[in-house]
Design goal:
Elements lengths: L1 H26 L6 H22 L4 H25 L14 H30 L7
């Protein structure tokens, strides 16, 4: 039960931060390639929601693995596109004025939230290896 609650909480924070970041992407505008957009939709938005639903079912183990995979994919994508790759989404390329401030704050916030999501998923995987009464 705690696993589902913690997983749900992290996914809610993840989805809110990413929705606000996506809004900043649109308003500035900071375009993504079709491949990047597909990755964002599938891995960053849809997969965590499916994982959350699974956490509340008999398929919670699959939900934990899907959550971990989505958080890892999201954190690596965010670090690469915002901090490493030189392009329109690279943080130094975006003005800090107007929507740029939201872009900066949410880009960094997403990295921390997704790191926390990875930690929660790791904790959940360790927890399910223990006897059922722990859950």
């Amino acid at each position: 039960m705690k696993i589902a609650q913690y997983g749900t909480a992290i996914v809610v924070m993840h989805e809110i931060a990413n929705a606000l970041h996506g809004l900043a992407h649109i308003k500035i505008p900071v375009p993504l390639s079709p491949l990047q957009s597909s990755f964002v939709v599938v891995v960053i938005f849809i997969a965590p929601i499916i994982a959350t639903v699974l956490l509340w079912t008999w398929f919670y183990r699959l939900g934990i693995w899907l959550l971990l995979s989505a958080m890892i994919g999201s954190i690596f994508f965010s670090i690469y596109i915002h901090l490493i790759a030189i392009g329109p989404a690279h943080i130094p390329q975006v003005s800090a004025e107007g929507w740029g401030l939201l872009f900066y704050v949410t880009a960094i916030l997403i990295i921390f939230i997704d790191g926390w999501g990875c930690w929660i998923s790791g904790w959940a995987l360790k927890t399910i290896q223990q006897p059922e009464e722990v859950l």
